[in-house]
Amino acid sequence: MARIAIDMDGVMADTAQQFINYYEQRYGVRIDKETLNGHPETGGFPHEKGIIRSFLFEPGFFRTKPVIKDSQEVIKALQEKYEVFIVSAAIEFPGSLTEKIEWLQEHYPFISWQNIVFCGSKTIVQADYMIDDHIKNLQHFKGEALMYTAPHNINVTDYKRVNNWEEVGQLLL
Asked: What kind and span of H or E run contains 117?
């Protein structure tokens, strides 16, 4: 059975929308998601990216991220055809570990704890496919790399791109 490694943040959990939500709560200004296109992940906001990056260390940031549309249904269907692993470079933000587990249990209860991998670097990951939104995670991957579209990678052209979970399903199911 072929194996798929799926990133969590920016692929299953909408990190860009969470930054927008937190920014609006703090500063009362709603940012349009399209204005983030082409900026680094914590860029594109009126305040410096250090302020935006600080949201990553706030309790609840990872626990309350919105689910990306259609990801639940497509991932559940992928499990019938593939060995599916959720792979997250979570160690940089140790406070996120419990929040990510709880988020997965709530939104993806059909994913076994045995299929969740938290790591520091994804260079160790071996699979047939990897779906990720960051170049750093795809550039050393030996299988077929699929770039999941996010505002920070909109201008990247080096990888096969999937824009949404409907496209993932069309490609892999």
From this structure: strand 116-118
Pairing state of beta strands 116-118 and 129-132? unpaired
Residues 72 and 28 in one domain: no
Given the residues 9, 14, 132, 133, select the one marked as catalytic.
9
Residue 21 structural domain: 15-57
The pLDDT assigned to 118 comes to 97
Q: Identify the CATH number of the domain in which residue 120 sits.
A: 3.40.50.1000
* Exposed / middle / buried, residue 15 (Cβ in 10 Å: 0-12, 13-18, 19+): buried
Torsion of CA 29, 32, 37, 39, to 10 degrees: 0
Is residue 9 among the annotated active site residues? yes
Q: Pick the catalytic residue: 7, 14, 132, 133?
A: 7
What confidence tier does 49 reach under pLDDT thresholds 50, 70, 90?
Answer: confident
pLDDT in tens, 83-100: 999 999 999 999 999 999
> Do both 93 and 22 map to the same domain?
no
Say if residue 100 is exposed, middle or buried (CB neighbours under 10 Å; 0-12, 13-18, 19+): buried
What is the C-alpha to C-alpha distance for residues 107 and 137, in angstroms, rounded to an integer? 24
Residues 104 and 146 in one domain: yes
d(CA 159, CA 157): 6
